[in-house]
Design goal:
The complex is a heterodimer of chains A (260) and B (66).
Chain A: E1 6-8, E2 11-13, E3 17-20, H1 27-37, E4 41-48, H2 60-63, E5 70-73, H3 81-94, E6 100-103, H4 116-128, E7 132-137, H5 141-150, E8 154-157, H6 171-180, E9 186-188, H7 194-202, E10 207-210, H8 212-215, H9 220-240
Parallel strand pairs in A: 3-4, 3-10, 4-5, 6-7, 7-8, 9-10
Antiparallel strand pairs in A: 1-2
Helix pairs in contact in A: 1-9, 3-4, 4-5, 5-6, 7-9
Chain B: E1 2-5, E2 8-11, H1 18-24, E3 33-36, E4 39-40, E5 56-64
Classes of the chains: A alpha/beta (260), B mainly beta (66).
Chain lengths: 260, 66
């Protein structure tokens, strides 16, 4: 597909697949899988440096350079609005004023479901502080709309719990969120394999953000390539408009002209 | 003097500048962000910022994450 860009906060992207950079065995695998995915937006986490440990070791941003990719710092691990806002401010300083962030405020370690009350609070604070907020949320259409109204530049409902690979558990809610939205809707979390990504895109999602589905595959670089194709295929199928489902058969070859 | 650096107690030279500490840690030229007592110290101020006794310093960088 040409000329079907994903536009987030006024910037155009050719790829509708966004990828995380966690859980790879090393930085070289991170680099290769990121490249194979075709993704242009890459999420990173903000963490303490390891004081005293091999200061010369390569840095993530050496293999995923901000000059080549749009870096999307996340607030993973934050359970309060305060921690999330603090993390975003550190990220903005780290990235020389870059203000696109992925907000997630978690509510529970077992499910990693978002704490919606804290997510709404943090989103409001961040938008007022000038951040462009892409927000991880649950698959609730009412909350998705609230987050859009607060001023988030993209709303990112989960398909299933983070890292679960269970696929789209509630396609009708995702569909309702998409139909209501005036900002890009990206499925974030829960995709397990290429067909899950295609299904999300066929529903009309504007994009997908994934990490574990690629990084935890037996061959991450090959899965990254598969995901790239699945997202493209799903997008094209959505734009093409699928045929209606019918209960019984409809012959593809004409009956007229049969000679038997 | 004593400071807390990334959650650990440390002794460092009195009146050291922030950039000097960053250099001592081997982080010269690295992409970092620094917070002291929960206030971000912009990169432009690292060279002049004088660390005080009891400061709580956090130095962060980007790592893999989803």
């Amino acid at each position: 597909m040409t000329n079907d860009p994903l536009i987030i906060a006024g910037k155009s992207y050719n790829s509708r697949l966004l990828v995380g950079s966690g859980k790879y065995k090393d930085l070289e695998e991170t680099r290769e899988a990121t490249e194979a995915s075709g993704a242009e937006i890459i999420t990173v986490a903000i963490r303490r440096t390891n004081i005293g440990q091999t200061p010369g070791e390569p840095n993530l941003l050496d293999v995923v350079p901000p000059e080549k990719y749009t870096i999307l710092p996340n607030t993973a691990g934050c359970y309060t609005a305060e921690d999330a806002v603090r993390t975003c401010r550190m990220a903005r300083e780290l990235l020389d004023g870059h203000d696109l962030v992925k907000l997630e405020v978690l509510g529970d370690e077992k499910t990693l479901f978002p704490d919606i009350v804290a997510t709404l609070e943090a989103a409001d604070l961040l938008v007022k502080d000038g951040f462009k907020v892409m927000v991880y949320t649950n698959d609730d259409p009412i909350i998705a709309k609230r987050l859009e109204e607060i001023g988030c530049v993209a709303v990112m409902p989960l398909a299933a719990p983070i890292g679960s690979g269970l696929g789209i558990r509630n396609p009708y809610n995702i569909l309702t969120i998409i139909e209501n939205a005036n900002v890009p809707i990206l499925v974030d979390a829960g995709v397990g394999t290429a067909s899950d990504a295609a299904i999300a895109m066929e529903l009309g999602c504007d994009g997908i953000l994934m990490n574990t589905a690629i990084a935890a595959a037996q061959k991450p670089v090959l899965m990254a390539s598969a995901m790239k194709k699945a997202v493209e295929a799903g997008r094209e199928a959505f734009l093409a408009g699928r045929m209606p489902r019918k209960r019984f058969a409809s012959a593809s070859s004409p009956i007229d002209g049969t000679f038997f | 003097m004593k400071i807390t650096l990334n959650g650990e107690a440390r002794s460092i030279d009195d009146s050291i500048k922030l950039q000097a500490l960053i250099d001592q840690l081997g982080y010269s030229g690295k992409r970092l962000a620094v917070e002291i007592n929960k206030e971000i110290i912009p990169k432009s101020q690292h060279a002049d910022y004088i660390i005080k006794d009891g400061d709580n310093i956090e130095i962060v960088h980007a790592i893999g994450g989803g």
